Amino acid sequence: MNPSIETAEQLAQIGREHELAEIDYEDASVKIHITFDPPPTAAPAFDPALLAPMMAGVPSAPSVGAAAPATGAPSAPTLSGETINSPLAGVFYRAPRPDADPFVEEGSNVATGQVLCIVEAMKLMNEITADRACKIVKILVENAEAVEEGQPLFLIS
After folding, report:
1. 9 and 39 in contact (C-beta within 8 Å)?
2. What is the pLDDT of residues 104-131, one digit of tens each?
3. Which DSSP state fits 122?
């Protein structure tokens, strides 16, 4: 059997056993990316009602980015204003290193493609960038805080 196929099968088995979301593997001859379906018992969805007290008085506008998953629960208050949401679950970091300055501060004007933060997932550091020029009105997450996919990270204008 082809060694690349054997490697892929071994990675798939590891991913299923440990209920991973995805696996990336690369060596000199092959690059493998496997995405798994979520496990049957999903983590609770982000509840925007928790942020409602912080958002009082912020003007309303449509939300951009990934939306939080819908639940069967009654509709909870949502964030007012545009947000930049986490594209994946992981740990939110405001700076590239603990001793470095944050990528952005509240009140920062950012350019398209500018790095806003890092979300670490499975030991991979994923840079989250601005998809358009905007101003950071509020940073909604604390440094080194766990975030869910679709969770608002920044309120922007």
Report:
1. no
2. 999 999 999 999 999 999 989 999 999 9
3. T
For 1, the 3-state DSSP assignment is coil
Give 129's DSSP letter: E
Tally of residues, the chain = 157
Q: DSSP string covering 34-95, please?
A: EE-PPPSSPPPPP-GGGGHHHHTTPPP----SPPPPP-SSPPPP--SSEEEE-SSSEEEESS
pTM of the model: 0.52
Q: Are residues 84 and 130 in contact, defined by beta-carbon separation less than 8 angstroms?
A: yes
Tens of pLDDT, residue by residue over 2-25, are 777 787 788 788 878 877 788 888
